[in-house]
Amino acid sequence: MIDEDRQVLFMGITGSHAYGLARPDSDVDVRGAIMPIASQIVGLDTLEQVQGEPVTVILGDGRMMVATDTVFYSLPRFVRMALQVNPNIVELLFLPKSCICAESWQWGRLMDCRADLLSRRVRDTYIGFALSELHRIEVQYAKTNSLKGKMGMHAVRLLRTGRELLLIGNMTVDRKVAGDAEELLNIRDGKVPYHELVKLIEHEVASLGAAFDKTVLPEQPNKDRVNRVLTDIMCRHCASTISYGSDVRGEWS
Length: 253
Known about the structure:
The protein is an alpha+beta fold. It contains 13 helices and seven strands. The protein is globular and about 60 Å long. The two termini are 32 Å apart.
């Protein structure tokens, strides 16, 4: 379990269950943000992330499951990765309510400046992630003449959500809601031949690139506002801990 001294600021179900692409036996992925303890903020120790800690979640269909594929990022690292438009981080900002297991006032403050985290860098990061998947697909096919459909599914999904971000500054994580879940499942299950899949990915790359010319996103994120919000959150936490926490106060008694 997550150390009780580290406050969970946000926890959400990601992966196939969030994308509307889960099988009955699909694993549950959980990602989140945590607040480091004071000594990891102002002292010599640091905390980047905690992973592999089991957590119990309730899925949209009411099933209770223990998730072991878990990663909780320290809030400062989460914000840095969001500013870099890391697709795995950005999608957490747009999770459907049904996938959110826990959220705090600190997370609410961050969500208030969600738009300030985004920039036109979406084009490069999303295309980069998708082309990396395409390269793996091509290498696998060249070696074994077999197709890794799951990689293709994720490449297409990434490119389409990246295009949405560029055009409207928002994204639909649940692909059932977006309307292309069945197509993505066919790709995952290997029902789309290799050459057709490559052409589809190349088409989606071009489509995302074209969306760049019509984007609503700014050239750069609003780092000043994001930094003010993050600094306020972290300072409030440190002040509270130092005032009432024996771990810091005891050193001065």
